[in-house]
From TrEMBL, chain A:
Cellular component aspect of the GO annotation: GPI-anchor transamidase complex
GO annotation, biological process: attachment of GPI anchor to protein; GPI anchor biosynthetic process; proteolysis
Keyword annotations from UniProtKB, A to Z: GPI-anchor biosynthesis, Membrane, Signal, Transmembrane, Transmembrane helix
Pfam name, any one: Peptidase_C13
PANTHER family: GPI-ANCHOR TRANSAMIDASE (PTHR48067)
Protein name per its UniProtKB record: GPI-anchor transamidase
TM regions (residue ranges): 12-32, 382-400
Listed pathway(s): Glycolipid biosynthesis; glycosylphosphatidylinositol-anchor biosynthesis
Biological source species: Volvox africanus
Automatic annotation (TrEMBL), chain B:
Keywords of this entry: Membrane, Signal, Transmembrane, Transmembrane helix
PANTHER family according to UniProt: GPI TRANSAMIDASE COMPONENT PIG-T, GPI TRANSAMIDASE COMPONENT PIG-T-RELATED
Signal peptide as annotated in the record: 1-23
Keyword Manganese: no
Organism: Volvox africanus
Transmembrane keyword on record: yes
InterPro entries to which the protein is assigned, alphabetical: PIG-T
Protein name: GPI transamidase component PIG-T
Residues passing through the membrane, by range: 640-661, 682-701
């Protein structure tokens, strides 16, 4: 009796340790290989734009996110495909002398807030769990469509995060943190559920690269504004508002995007060319989990613009139900959508075949010494070994305890077959 | 009033059908402007839409139709407000005023089971959060929902006739929730405008296009009302009312001075004030009108009209008292025919008609006009289409000048002075309510609600002698004068717990016993972490009492660490209290008549949703401002988490080690001494193992510790080449 009650929590603990042990290893489940995903056509664009900072003094983080919102909206992504998370009201804040406007520059020539803005999550709704729910699509059934990321395997998704961060975390709403592993897991889940075709993730925080370093989901491009032990600095101090307006990395990004339009053929490489340490005071970095891609192959409008390749199919799918539950209505609507021209039917066939391997690519524009491979491996090894040691010592401890308990049991004069019954 | 609106609406519907356009969707837009102070202009938009079609709408928003048809609801009212109505400066509001933040008021069909009710509420809240970009999903948990409480109107229902008893609210289940700290900005207006057929591209809504003016206003309120109704023919329909109320501060001072110097100088232009122009007419609009409140008192205008029309004069005592009847000052003006062109400088147009709110005595067939309503201003009505035809892609509407007033703000004394001069509309409020917290303790406090009634209100109450409105609900001793009732509705979040036995009522500073003055009460205590407490009290306040104070002590709850909002140090919002009272100036039957030359009683009667909304009902509601209650908050700094975690691990480690080293092998206490001798070696081994276990655990969990360990090992000269390649 005493033995079994003593063993209950301990065995749970062993299970817990084992789970952590398994979790540390890479257990790869790939539902869609990267080739399959990339050969699907690019049909829609989605954007998840998140600012995670509350309070008036973090005006610039809201402006960062609104700048990207301004860019994607100008380049044609509709509000229905943008999930905007803004934790505090800056534009109509009582401290804002310029109501309903947000500026990235003290000259006040570009209002990034705009005339028509739709914020999907705001105030206290901006939480880690809501963000992860948006990414993974695991919502309560009541959540309206406007608050869901309804992307599929043919969608290009842009995710932008701005806020206060540190080593492998970003703070949300000043009370909670999103950890790098959680983010990586959410992206992996998105990949498995076929929620994106390609995903571009941009993070503008201090030590942004650390937040993204665990991402291993296929076909993800990550861009970080700063490295470990680096800060992401602010820019453009406005005497009228009394604080900084924007962060340098986003300012540079916005400046670049203001020069292009929807027909632009600019690539990621062009964007990267405009980033400089002299201006930003931090080193940006990017990673591509798909080895075959190069920055010069990725068109910016693939993510920031709405350049979908839409075709209609002859068979009516479940979408028709959406037209008021009426199949006739669906036919009526379909009559207004033009069929595809023959020449653009299969431009995707021209795409090169990708290798099945997804090799991690590290490419850091970084003059300071980067962490060496052996260092990373050593750290991983120590982690693995320490876990193993913990497990071993726990097992040994349990064994000794078990033996000793057996000893007491015999000393109390219990029959030896009792213990066998218990065990 | 609902019935009146309903009749008006149905009439509009019938008209639309009669005109011959087969549309089942109707849309009407109206705008009301009035000066509430020499510097502040009230601009109130009202957009009404209705449909009887179940799908294939021409202009009605489908999302709303779907919402109304899927959920079993009667009516939903949603308001988002920033700023507050300044009763002392702006006086009594012409239109309904809402408290700061978001208020959601839903009445669902009766007979829903509690579970279904919660599901309906959740669906409604989520749908509205998608439709209005507000964070209503925070209302998801029922902590902020309260039931309907006592409605003053329902309390008076038996005597006010069948009008309110027939209302859709009767028999339904009302749910109400407030978010006092909800901001209002462009993102709320964008989806709101999307429900209009022309958005802000045409029609009166394009006056909202300059967002900085709209959201720079001192009081901004966005309203949305959704209601199901049935036409007399039995067709089911949905009605959607959208309102925007702005109080804009304008720099009119210079213009005013100019006007005083040169009376013919052009004054303020409505489009200039709003920073946007109406360029196009919104084609689906069945009615598109601008109503401008006249700064002159309606009595004077009424007298003029009557004199000019040559109707039967000096019927009412008011007129003869005023002494302006036979050949008053206005007679001269009337003969020159400037009544219509009054205060419209510039080129003379024929754009407007003057409307007067006239009261119809209850018994008469509707021809004998008694007097004008004192509570409502005279309105000048313009048709948008006519204005657009004259103006060059603009309304070009000149506003009248506000009443010249001393440049200092009209304080109460000034208001009284003005009232003595016979002007009632620019005067201060009848009833003011304010609320504050006493005590700086982190555990206890008290809240005081103070209601002040103006001298005029008291005088009117005394004069009315309880004629007309007599309440019967819960009144002891026969008749309770309905007009002397004051009802208070206060919602307490569960972490603010009022002690009802400490409730004291003071009339003019004198404590009075509560029971004899209590007409009705409904007190629902809060349920910890699940529903707020609601206090509804209806008090009979004698007409002579100028100030009513209610005091109640409360204690504050401790929250768990995850229950604190991110800005816990700001304090916790307690929603606004609602004070309702009966307006003695309310006239049950008000008609708006056009002052056309001719007989007074035979003048054209004008009705519209906005006009009938102005004389909405006898119950007036006054909201207090928000209240912040500071609660004890822990130190939320980052190290907090680290300290928590590491100290827990350390405590477990030391606890286990101490337990191991001090406890004897056998808990029963009669262990043989040789056993402990034997287990000494085992204990040492166990202690060592535990040390290894915890240090390995720490190494596993903490990346920095691993790095430190690695550096230490490297310094000690261990080869660190676990190449896993």
């Amino acid at each position: 009796m005493s033995l079994s009650s003593g063993r209950g929590p301990a065995s749970l603990f062993i299970v817990y340790i084992c789970l952590m042990w398994i979790g540390s290893g890479r257990v790869g489940i790939t539902a869609l290989t990267s080739t399959e995903r990339l050969t699907s056509r690019h049909e829609s664009n989605w954007a998840v734009l998140v600012s995670t900072s509350r309070f008036w003094l973090n005006y610039r983080h809201i402006v960062n996110t609104m700048s990207i919102y301004h860019v994607v909206k100008r380049l044609g992504i509709p509000d229905s495909n943008i999930i905007l998370m803004i934790p505090d009201d800056m534009a109509c804040n009582a401290r804002n002398p310029l109501p309903a406007q947000l500026f990235n520059n003290e000259s006040h020539w570009l209002d990034v807030y705009g005339q028509d803005v739709e914020v999907d999550y705001r105030g206290y709704e901006v939480t880690v769990s809501n963000f992860l729910q948006v990414l993974t699509g695991r919502h309560d059934s009541n959540v309206p469509r406007s608050k869901r990321l309804m992307s599929d395997a043919s969608s290009n998704v842009l995710v932008y995060l701005s806020g206060h961060g540190g080593d492998e975390f970003i703070k949300f709403n000043d009370v909670e943190e999103l950890l790098a592993q959680d983010l990586a897991d959410a992206l992996a889940q998105m990949a498995e559920k076929g929620r994106y075709r390609e995903l571009l993730m941009i993070v503008e925080t201090c030590e942004a690269a650390t937040l993204l370093q665990r991402v291993s989901a296929p076909d993800v491009i990550t861009i970080a504004s700063s490295q470990k032990d680096e800060q992401s600095l602010s820019f453009k101090s406005d005497p009228e508002l009394g604080m900084s307006l924007i962060d340098r990395f986003t300012y540079q990004t916005l400046a670049f995007f203001e020069s292009i339009d929807i027909k632009s053929a600019a690539t990621l490489a062009d964007l990267f060319g405009t980033y400089s340490y002299e201006f930003m005071q931090s080193h940006f970095s990017y990673r591509m989990t798909n080895a075959a891609l190069r920055p010069k192959d990725v068109k910016l409008t693939d993510f920031f613009g709405s350049v979908a390749d839409i075709r209609t199919t002859s068979d009516r799918g479940p979408q028709d139900i959406m037209y008021h539950g009426d199949a006739q209505m669906g036919r009526y609507m379909a009559a207004y959508i033009d069929e595809d021209a023959p020449w653009d039917i299969d431009s995707t066939l021209m795409q090169p075949d990708m290798s099945n391997e997804s090799i991690m690519m590290w490419k850091i524009f970084y003059t300071a010494p980067s962490p060496s491979d052996s260092g990373i491996l050593n750290r991983e090894a120590i982690r693995a070994w320490s876990g193993f040691m913990a497990l071993c010592s726990l097992a040994l401890y349990m064994l000794i305890a078990h033996i000793r308990m057996k000893g007491y049991r015999t000393s109390w004069g219990l029959a030896p077959e009792d213990s066998s019954l218990v065990s | 009033s609902l019935m009146l609106q309903y009749i008006v609406w149905t009439a509009g519907l019938m008209l639309a059908i009669a005109v011959g356009c087969n549309a089942q969707d109707v849309f009407s837009e109206e705008l009301l402007t009035a000066w509430v102070s020499p510097q502040h202009l009230l601009v109130h938009f009202r957009f009404d839409q209705g449909t009887t079609a179940s799908r294939l709408h021409t202009s009605f928003p489908h999302a709303i139709q779907q919402l109304a048809s899927t959920l079993r609801l009667h009516a939903v009212e949603l308001s988002l407000t920033s700023g507050r109505w300044r009763y002392t400066t702006w006086g009594r509001p012409l239109v309904a005023v809402t408290p700061v933040g978001a208020v959601l008021d839903a009445s669902l069909r009766a007979g829903l089971k509690p579970q279904a009710l919660i599901a309906h509420w959740a669906a409604l809240v989520n749908a509205l959060s998608g439709l209005s970009c507000a964070s209503f999903s925070l209302l998801h948990d029922p902590t902020s929902i309260s039931g309907g409480g006592i409605s003053l109107r329902q309390l008076l229902a038996p005597t006010t006739g069948n009008r309110s008893a027939e209302g859709p609210v009767a028999g339904g289940q009302r749910l109400r929730a407030m978010l006092p700290h909800e901001p209002l900005c462009t993102e709320n207006l964008t989806p709101w405008l999307r429900l209009l057929p022309c958005r802000d591209q045409a029609g009166l809504a394009s006056l909202l296009r300059h967002r900085p003016t709209v959201f720079g206003a001192e009081y901004v309120s966005l309203g949305l009302m959704l209601e199901r109704h049935a036409t007399p023919k039995g067709r089911r329909g949905v009605r959607l009312v959208q309102t925007v109320t702005l109080v804009i501060r304008t720099a009119l001072k210079r213009a005013q001075q100019q006007q005083q110097a040169h009376p013919s100088a052009p004054g303020a232009d409505l489009e200039t004030v709003l920073g946007a122009r109406v360029e196009h007419f919104c084609p689906p609009a069945m009615r598109s009108e601008v109503l401008v409140a006249e700064p002159d008192s309606p009595e004077g205008l009424f007298a003029t009209w009557r004199t000019r029309s040559g109707g039967v004069c000096c019927e009412s005592e008011d007129e003869s008292q005023n002494g302006s009847c036979p050949l008053g000052d206005y007679a001269a003006a009337a003969t020159t025919g400037t009544l219509d062109a009054h205060n419209t400088p510039g080129p003379v147009r024929e754009p407007s008609r003057l409307l007067l709110p006239v009261m119809i005595p209850a018994g008469s067939p509707g021809f004998a006009v008694e007097a004008v309503s004192q509570a409502l201003p005279a309105l000048r009505r313009y048709d948008t289409l006519e204005l657009l035809e004259v103006g060059d892609r603009a309304l070009g509407l000149q506003l009248p000048y506000p009443h010249p007033q001393p440049s200092t703000q009209p304080h109460i004394a000034g208001v009284h002075e003005m009232r003595a001069n016979g002007d009632d509309r620019l005067a201060g409020p009848d009833l003011q309510a304010d609320r504050y917290v006493t005590g700086a303790n982190l555990l206890h406090g008290a809240v005081v609600l103070r209601i002040q009634r103006s001298r005029e209100l008291r005088a009117r109450l005394e004069a009315s002698q309880c004629t007309g409105w007599r309440g019967s609900g819960g009144a002891e001793g026969g008749g309770t004068c309905g007009s002397s009732l004051v009802c208070i509705n206060q919602l307490f979040p569960w972490y603010v717990r009022p002690w009802m036995h400490t409730l004291t009522v003071l009339y003019d500073g004198q404590e009075v016993p509560l029971r004899p003055h209590l007409v009705a009460q409904q007190v629902r205590p809060a349920v910890q972490r699940s529903s707020p407490g609601v206090v509804d009290l209806c008090l009979r306040v004698p007409p002579a009492v100028a100030e009513v104070q209610l005091r109640v002590a409360f204690s504050k709850a401790f929250l768990t660490v995850f229950e604190y909002p991110p800005d816990a140090h700001r304090g916790f919002d307690v929603p606004a209290a609602v004070v309702s009272y009966l307006d003695p100036l309310y006239a049950p039957a008000v008609q708006w008549r056009v002052t056309s030359p001719g007989d007074v009683s035979g003048a054209e009667v004008v009705s519209s949703p906005l006009l009938s909304g102005l004389s909405a009902g006898p119950v007036k509601q006054v909201y207090t401002v928000g209240l912040l209650v500071p609660l004890a908050a822990p130190d939320f700094s980052m190290p907090y988490n680290v300290i928590c975690l590491s100290s827990t691990v350390l405590a477990v480690y030391f606890g286990a080690l101490l337990n191991l080293l001090t406890r004897r092998g056998c808990a029963a206490g009669h262990a043989a001494p040789e056993r402990s001798k034997v287990s000494l070696g085992g204990k040492a081994l166990q202690a060592l193992l535990m040390l290894v276990l915890f240090s390995a655990l720490a190494l596993y969990l903490d990346a920095e510790l691993r790095q430190h360990a690695m550096e230490l090992l490297a310094k000690l000269g261990f080869p660190l080449e676990f190449k896993l390649k």
